[in-house]
Design brief:
Elements (H helix, E strand, L loop, with lengths): L22 E5 L3 H9 L4 E4 L3 H4 L11 H12 L6 E5 L9 H13 L6 E4 L5 H9 L4 E6 L5 H4 L10 H13 L4 E5 L3 H10 L4 E4 L7 E4 L1 H4 L17 H17 L17
Parallel strand pairs: 1-2, 1-8, 2-3, 3-4, 4-5, 5-6, 6-7, 7-8
Helix pairs in contact: 4-5
């Protein structure tokens, strides 16, 4: 018996992510924020391995496990109706072998309910991207400053000053292997513009200037929730850390002064006549 499938109106799918439209993307890690970014009209929600820093408090992303990404992806999936959901494949979940990479990317979809995955690397992961594309697992590539390569790069440093050709070749390899888009991170804006002009698939920039086809930011950064000085490329569209601290201080004071809860926030039993 055939079934009619009704798609959510306005649902963003992989074929929706293409040249000719500006693409907005953010990270998210839980159900509540997933609902908020979805209602705001964000196109792509990435459950990033940045959860290592903003959720777990680690100094980098290398300790994040696939099980953790799956856990958070599943939570985010429950809050989305419109946005495209991608899972960030963590360190050593795909580098061991193509076969292991395929298996783990499959888990991100079957267990985490992701609609695609993001993989760091260019030429080095081209064979994996090709295999994934053959079995219909959508892939977003990621070249330039790749956080999982932090030790090789000697820190989170802008790339493309001395290895410009390599980044161009990596981006082309990602495209030719079947990826539907590619993140360009931490590279000069003129290089990002050149890559964007050369590629047929859309580019998503982070610290790569305004000429990419779209942009992505860590949600906690753009909302002003992260502590410390934000990276140069981050614009804080709000300061929720300050607002949250203020609200919590008022709560603490209200508890100390017995102003909370008041009679309207308390339960009383009716007297039986």
């Amino acid at each position: 018996m055939s079934q009619k499938i009704k798609l959510t109106e306005g649902k963003i799918t992989v074929p929706s992510i293409k040249k000719g439209r500006k693409i907005s993307a953010v990270t998210a890690y839980d159900f509540t924020f997933a609902e908020i970014v979805d209602e705001a009209g964000v196109d792509i929600v990435l459950v990033g391995d940045s959860l290592g820093s903003v959720i777990k408090g680690e100094k980098n992303t290398l300790s994040v496990t696939l099980d953790e990404v799956i856990y958070h992806t599943k939570a985010v999936s429950r809050g989305l109706k419109r946005s495209l959901l991608l899972a960030d494949m963590p360190f050593m979940s795909y580098q061991i072998s193509v076969e292991k990479g395929v298996e783990n990317c499959g888990r991100a979809l079957s267990e985490g309910f992701a609609e695609g995955v993001k993989i760091e690397g260019g030429i080095s992961v081209a064979s994996l991207i090709e295999r994934l594309s053959l079995i219909d697992i959508p892939v977003m590539g990621h070249v330039g400053l790749t956080p999982q390569s932090v030790h090789r790069m000697g820190g989170y440093k802008v790339q493309g000053k001395e290895n410009r050709k390599k980044i161009i070749d990596d981006a082309r390899a990602v495209q030719d292997s079947g990826a539907f888009s590619v993140v360009l991170e931490g590279i000069p804006s003129d290089l990002a513009e050149e890559i964007t002009d050369r590629l047929k698939i859309p580019t998503i920039g982070i610290g790569a200037g305004s000429k990419c086809d779209g942009q992505i930011l860590v949600l906690y950064d753009l909302l002003g929730l992260s502590g410390g000085t934000p990276p140069k490329f981050v614009r804080q569209f709000s300061n929720l850390r300050e607002a949250s601290t203020k609200a919590l201080k008022e709560y603490v004071e209200a508890v100390k002064n017995e102003n909370f809860p008041d009679s309207g926030e308390s339960y009383t039993l009716r007297k039986v006549q």
